[in-house]
Amino acid sequence: MWWPKSADVELRIEPLKYFVGDPHDMKDQGRSTRKRTGGRLKPLRKKKKYELGNQPTETQVGEPRFRTTDARGRNAKIRALTTDAANVTTGDETASATIQDVLENGANPNYARRNIITKGAVIVTTEGKARVTSRPGQTGQVNAVLVDDE
What we know:
Number of domains: 2
Strand order of the largest sheet: 6-7-9-10-11
Radius of gyration: 23 Å
Distance between the termini: 68 Å
Number of helices: 2
Strand content: 35-45%
């Protein structure tokens, strides 16, 4: 880095003009670099863009907030960051309900404590207990089926 020699010259660091992006936003989903025995695998080729993935969107219960991300083929994914509405189905009827709490989540036991909604989570709604059938981090909405209280 260049430093000024005289004291009367002011050193000024300019902020970035363009948003470069956080390297933690992307996730490499290519081949592992280690063998099952712990040995090192040599790369067969360089990393490809289609092997990149994103960090999981951990949809929480709260005031609705959404984010759109680019997907393959000029498509867009609507990611639900927080939501409080669910489409609850009982047999032939579907009603909109308000999500109150997350009872259990099979994906991760800590998700229930943190009120994170994923597919398969059991939520408490104004209609009753329901199991989530959609992927809120991928579709942006919560669809659920009412379950029996046992």
